[in-house]
Design brief:
Elements (H helix, E strand, L loop, with lengths): L11 E3 L9 E5 L1 H6 L6 H8 L11 E3 L3 E3 L2 E3 L7 E7 L2 E6 L14 E2 H16 L6 E7 L3 E3 L3 E11 L5 H9 L3 H15 L8 H22 L2 E2 L21 E2 L23 H15 L6 H8 L2 H16 L9 H14 L4 H7 L3 H5 L5 H12 L6 H6 L9 H14 L3 H11 L29
Antiparallel strand pairs: 1-3, 2-9, 4-5, 6-7, 7-11, 8-11, 9-11, 10-11, 12-13
The structure holds adenosine monophosphate and magnesium ion.
The site of adenosine monophosphate has 17 residues, from loops.
């Protein structure tokens, strides 16, 4: 039985999963599987992962939530194509693409293989980069036909998280004035996920924790140039996990105005807007907790967001540049580096990784003035672990769109899933050198320059 089910049926609907035609297991995250203490044959796992069989006789459920989508409140959303199917070791199992639910709003409840591969690879990438995320356990392909701009094969990703509750779950009840349910939901989240907040100030402390975790998560996104693409409040996890991978993208050629979602015409969720959007989203969460904490209390907590974000981000960036001792001018130095990247259309990940070997960057004239300053700054510190430190935060490999696209095309056109395995292994350890796979650190080839991603997944 799912803990979440204890909340009662105002919070979800029991559903029946709609299995895929001729499903097959494309990949399983063995390390996660072991960590979750699962033990079944691949055949049995496939039955669960494709929605054919229940997990330990657990009734699958789809949760109901609301949310602000692109700034506009939508009074009822919900798990339109995902559902919770069970729980093991305190971790919820969720299928994405197992068919319609009462919250599908006319859509088909399916996920296509293309976007499922992207989610599968991105969640392992985020984990590899030490950014909090839901984690995908299995990827299942099928012969189910799904209609998007063209017919595409359907797939299911099983994702896992301690909880899949979103800001939007709170917003739903707040918009209906159901304060009893808001309290019930908050008590549930505190009991299972923030037990250390229990006490007289538990709702403030809980909100403060969500703010802090969100700040840390977004700092990780900014430091690794991850752009989520659809930062609606229904895609914001109450545990500060990166959730709902859709038209995400990692910045390759550095541009802080990067908009990964082709459908986001106004650039609401542009890369450099993310810290501000997260704050706005947290403010909407604060609104929906209005029956538990006062405006003044919420404001006092929210006032700490920026400091937490900057602290967390600065810590990461200082490591990226191999700086241990603080110098007032460090922010300026880092800002100048970004300016060089931007002006000369340099690759973010590779430029930073090459900082570990100043010799390599020195061959690039674009960096020469900046390197003179950097050399001087580094000389101030006699830090023998500098390279190790930098390599532990500057990935050599990042999920570039073209790498995902190659894996997708091989899977779709040739039913060859080996590339998914290669990328999965690479991105679980993105800081390692992986000799023999170094071409995977290459920048996008010309055929991939115009790749676009949108919400249609
Ligand atoms: P997203 O922003 O992609 O996380 O999705 C927004 C809302 O649309 C969520 O409530 C989803 O469950 C729902 N949704 C997205 N795609 C589908 C689909 N193919 N079928 C049913 N619901 C969907
Ligand atoms: Mg969503």
């Amino acid at each position: 039985m799912l803990d979440f089910s204890n909340l009662g049926e105002e919070f979800f609907s029991p559903i029946e999963t709609q299995p895929l035609n001729n499903p097959f297991l494309i990949h399983k995250n063995q390390a996660l599987y072991d960590q979750l203490g699962l033990d079944m044959s691949d055949a049995d796992l496939l039955k669960v992962a494709s929605g054919e069989q229940q997990f330990q006789n657990t009734q699958p459920i789809a949760s109901i939530y609301a949310g602000h989508q692109f700034g506009h409140f939508v009074s009822q959303l919900g798990d339109g194509r995902s559902c919770l199917i069970g729980q093991t070791q305190g971790c919820e199992l969720s299928l994405k693409g197992a068919g319609q639910t009462p919250y599908s709003r006319g859509a088909d409840g399916r996920a296509v293989l293309r976007s499922s591969i992207r989610e599968y690879l991105c969640s392992i990438s985020m984990k590899g980069l030490n950014i909090a995320t839901t984690e995908a356990l299995t990827l299942v392909g099928s012969e189910t036909e799904v209609y998007r701009e063209q017919i595409e094969p359907g797939a299911i990703v099983m994702r896992t998280a301690a909880s899949h509750i979103r800001f939007g779950n709170f917003e739903l009840f707040a918009s209906r004035g159901q304060t009893k349910q808001i309290k019930q939901l908050a008590d549930f989240v505190i009991k299972y996920h923030y037990p250390y907040c229990q006490g007289d100030n538990q709702y403030i402390d809980f909100f403060a924790e969500v703010v802090k975790r969100t700040a840390v998560m977004v700092a990780g996104w900014q430091a690794q140039c991850f752009s989520h693409g659809v930062m609606n409040t229904d895609n914001m996890s109450i545990l500060g996990l990166t959730i709902d991978y859709g038209p995400f993208g990692f910045i390759e050629t550095y541009n802080p105005k990067f908009v990964c979602n082709h459908s986001d015409h106004e650039g609401r969720y542009a890369f450099d807007q993310q810290p501000g959007v997260a704050f706005w989203n947290l403010s909407r969460l604060a609104d929906s907790l209005g029956s538990l904490i006062t405006d003044k209390q919420a404001k006092a907590v929210l006032d700490g967001y920026q400091t937490q974000l900057v602290e967390s981000y600065s810590k990461l960036m200082r490591k990226k540049f191999g700086l241990i001792e603080k110098d007032d001018q460090d922010n300026v130095l880092i800002g100048q580096f970004f300016e060089v990247l931007y002006q000369n259309q340099k690759d973010y990940t590779n430029s930073l990784r090459q900082l570990n070997d100043v010799g390599k960057l020195a061959n690039d004239l674009d960096f020469s003035d900046w390197l003179a300053l950097y050399d001087k700054r580094i000389d101030q510190e006699k830090n023998s672990n500098r390279i190790e430190l930098m390599n532990s935060v500057n990935p050599k490999y990042i999920l570039r769109n073209y790498l995902a696209e190659v894996a997708i095309r091989k899977a779709q056109d040739e039913k060859d899933y080996t590339e998914i395995e290669t990328l999965f292994n690479l991105f679980s350890q993105p800081f390692d050198e992986h000799p023999g796979l170094t071409t995977y650190a290459d920048e996008a080839p010309s055929w991939a320059q115009g790749l676009e991603v949108s919400c249609s997944s």
